Batch of 4 targets.
Target 1
Amino acid sequence: MDTPRPTPPPYRWATDFLTIGVTGTNGKTSTTAMVAATMRAAQHGVVRIGTLGYHLDDASGDPGWEKIERKPSAKGFYDVLEHAHGRGVRHAALEVTSHALARNYAKRWRFDHAVFTNLSPDHLDEHQTWEHYLASKAQLFVHLGPGQTAVLNAADQHALFIDQAMPPDIHRMWFASPTRGPALRETDLAARDVEVTPAGTRVTLAPSPLAEQLGSELLVTMVGDVFAENALAAAVVCSAAGFSPHAIAQGLRCPAVPGRFEVISREPTVVVDFAHTPDALARTCATAKRLAKRRLIVVMGAGGNRSVEKRGPMGRETAARADLMFVTTDNPRDEDPAVIAAAVVAGAEGAAHAEIRSIPDRREAIQAAVAAAREGDVVVVAGKGHETGQEIGGETLPFSDVDEVRRITSAGAAPKQP
């Protein structure tokens, strides 16, 4: 028997929600934050669920996201949504991972509209094959109801597969930015030009009816080319869901997401970013390179017990853009950190641009990178972003890149002179 479409609400109260889901390898958290901020700008109470946890703004007073402490599980998910419903919330912005989709998440919660950001190699330890990873992402769109909207990245070839996999009665809308490459089909909203500054990102839109409605440009608080893509996606899906251009403009100016190109220090400029795939590192480094007046210095490593195949490419993409690169420990889990680092370095040496240094201790690597920085340099500490723990051996030990950078820069470990 075919699965009913749209997915039936799991509880009676769930019928009341308007839900927008966001999936893809990179950009889920930022896109979801922009969508949630747009909902809030339209004076709706919102529940936002994703990598950063469960957050609620019930619109009862001044905007402010309240973190709800629940276990990241199916029960925790439903508990938070029911709690939000009890507070009068009827709008939800949800990150949707391939892990959840592979476990039939899209059959257990009804999504009204969905966004595909992009796809690049990740989580293949779980999915085993690239095809399974892509098929898992497609589940979010396969189970949308007739007439609902799928928002797809026209500059990512994998979106074409999702388009083919979806039922024909789902409304498709497309976005694209030249920072990812040429659009592979016609778009509803596209960037003509992207300007990145330390203060944010300006997206000049190519002419289209939707671009005209939005005032021909998007202004984003977040810094980076990838946030231009995320803003395009958020603008398209929020427009499809009926939100006004004014609410969308306000939503796109939401604060930077913790650990996503988060500027922690300006003398020297030190950025913490969650980038932990080859594609994400390439884009983060490209953004930092545009902001640097002199050198780009990067601290990075790869996690243990998963996605072995991306270690060399992570090193290669970083070394091709950085001037100085510190290879260090990320979350080694049960693997030997030296073995992981060797694979990263092997990939980096093939790029032959950056000077490569290996410092296994992450705290020491960050300190060395900041100490090496001079006026005009940009330091990127990549891989862990918002995380506050380091997985080593079967333990999660306290560790925060953000806290380390703040400690080092406030203690004067960074030189101030050129």
Target 2
Amino acid sequence: MPRVSIIVPCYNEQTTIRLLLEALRQQTFPRAEMEVVIADGMSSDGTRAEIAAFQKDFPNLDVRVVDNPLRSIPSGVNRAIEVSRGGIIVRLDAHSKPYPDYVANCVSAIESGRGDNIGGVWEIRPGADTWIAKSIAVAAAHPLGVGDALYRHARHAAEVDTVPFGSFKRGLIDRVGYFDESLLTNEDYEFNARIRKAGGRIWLDPSIRSIYFARPTLLELARQYWRYGFWKWRMLRRYPDTLRWRQALPPLFVLSLIGLAFLSLFFPLAGFALIGELALYFSVMILAGLSATLSRRKPYLVFGLPLAIPVMHLTWGSGFLWSILKSSPKKNG
């Protein structure tokens, strides 16, 4: 039986790190063949105290902490991999809670040769017990919010472009290299792009399931999706052929709003077009909120979805466009 190294980058995750460690302790895979390596970005809250308390309570699960002074996700993943000892790497997130058979199913899929990097499906849960946090969790799994991202709603195994977290044999690092530390987000997509360009396969298996806790407030959601959009452009500059239609729509939408707003200063018809576009957009959002309210019997979704999904679209698209501007060649002068 192979030894498994579970890699977890984290920073200020006091509220969720214990949930993750408890879930790892409940894994059906033998504890003696698992190690957990947490790369902590020098947390300033009680994250390390929570980890230390868990280590004291449950010494039969091998849990180690390494410093990640750069505080980025890819640097944390790399530092943890460097000190890990397992032949199979399973990457997880401090915001996640894997099902009890998560590690066992990852190992089974890897040993069956289904793919080079194998992952599963997220079940999005609220990050807090508030109506807006619950709405954000629904939005983060809604087709209008994430398009055709299969790892949020797939029911059948398939070859895909990317998977959340991922699990792979250590030898894959020798083939394609470590995670790119110049990308503060989208490092997993870039890693998977290199795997595919090297002839490897990314495999999604819905039996590999984890709970992911969404951001609890609109402000935190906006910050998250701004980062996603900003760093997506940086990744696409290297791999333009990986652009998917769902990723192009938010920046095009934001660009159309900016363009029509500017043109409306000179052409009144552009102002009417802007009003029409916004009216159509928010009509779709309201209909989505009504549909979710009826199907889930949660009245707050009629307000929550038309708030959360536009925040995702507008901040992702704005971050993407800002990244383009920031990376444009500077004029001499």
Target 3
Amino acid sequence: MSHAKLKLIGSMTSPYARKARIVAAEKRIDILFVPADPWSPQSGIPELNPLGKVPVLVLEDGTPLYDSRVIVEFLDGVSPIAKLIPADHRDRIEIRRWEALADGVLDAGILARLEAQRPTGERSQGWIARQMATVERGLTAMDRELDSRAWCAGSGFSLADIAVGCCLGWLEFRFPDLAWRARCANLVRHQDKVADRPAFADTVPHA
């Protein structure tokens, strides 16, 4: 399905931009991906998103959408192909709950990484430890709730699986020493399965 006038602005390393890219690919929506560095003063991102964050989806009429949760809901409604967010209220909330958990783990991981990049005398090890404890709790919760199920929620692949897959992929990219694979067997099984999907393979985060 061609929506070439839809433009997604994001960085190659952003797990939230990756989530939107995967949703577009699974929905067979042809969008233009424009790599941009949100930290660069020349990026133009603050003019589109006053929060200065990516991703931003620019619609045909120039309207910018943000953040990733709004973008993926818009994309899922654009095409009836491969519905990723169910219409039923309870089923929808279950999917969104998984997305909130995965995104929350990412939020904590990103905060920890940013703090660790500050000059040695300015960074707070206590803050880093607090955020990484959140990451660990989130991983434990996701692994426990996934249990032996094939997919995170319901009987098929959904936005929940995309959100979790992007979360784990980013952690492997940015925190290779976290070693979550050694203690989260259910997540390992899930991640290895979703990683084989073309949309995941084509959007592996890199610098």
Target 4
Amino acid sequence: MMKLSFFKSLNNKLFGWYIGSLIILSVFFYVGVHILAIPRGTELFFLLFFLLAIIGFAIIYNITNDLTYLTKKIKEISHENLRDRIVDIKRDDELGELATAFNNLLNRLDEAFKREQQFIGDVAHELKTPIATMRSALEVAISKDRSNDEYKKVIHDSIIETNHISSTLKNVLDLAWSETPHEQKHFVKLNLSKLTTELIDIADKLASSRLQNVRSNVSSKIYINGYEERLARGIINIIENAIKYTPPKGIITVQLSKKNDRAVLTVRDTGQGILATDIPHIFDRFYRGSTTDNVFGSGIGLSITKSIVNLHHGSIDVKSQPGKGTIFTIKLPLSEN
């Protein structure tokens, strides 16, 4: 909240008018009427009193008029018009601060409603198809007598769809969490070098089954402030993507270093790459590029990663050449102490 100067404060304005009026009237009466004996001094005294009263009335009327308008607007706000804002109060005093604070409150409420609607839409979008597919398969299965092997196949396929639904729900919940504002004071100091090394060990195990080689170059003692579990989820999403889209015997390289006041994490692969037309959209929720048809996924992992990086006041960039590979670069502010 901004600090008001002395003459912009309502309290000071009213106090200044009150004290100023008393001083002006007292000086005029004592000097003009009592000492100098100005002709018609008494009438001028009452005229001056009347003018000062009008000035005071104008000040109070202006204040109460804006208060009435502000009260009216507050009563009119509901979930249906959260985008309305108070724009007619343009003051530098406490009323202006109140109007600004109320607008900021509406901004936060509006964002919260949008996140809720987006979450509901995401869940509906992702669950509609697998649930419909599973229901259709079950209805077909009970439409007539079948062999045990056929029933087992239907049950097996249903379990796969159930796992898909469970994984999707977890991803959507993670995305909703990562897009919810959190206060930076809840961050903890964490060793990003140690975390990255642990994630490289996981990547090495994932890549070994595909005969891929994981290389690393991690600088020690790089500290940042944040949520360790969430950062790990965001980084592993990038690493898993590199493994998914890199052919057998390919190379995934993970590097961590310092540059100025930033920790710089890069994940490089020798995979199929990303088309230039897809790059502007890869962080959009549920977007799957034109070269991902044969790879299982919901198209939400990179959205989660970007939200987590944004939450930590960082940035994420991607460079890619089809057929040659992709480089993801995450930059995060270093811990100050």
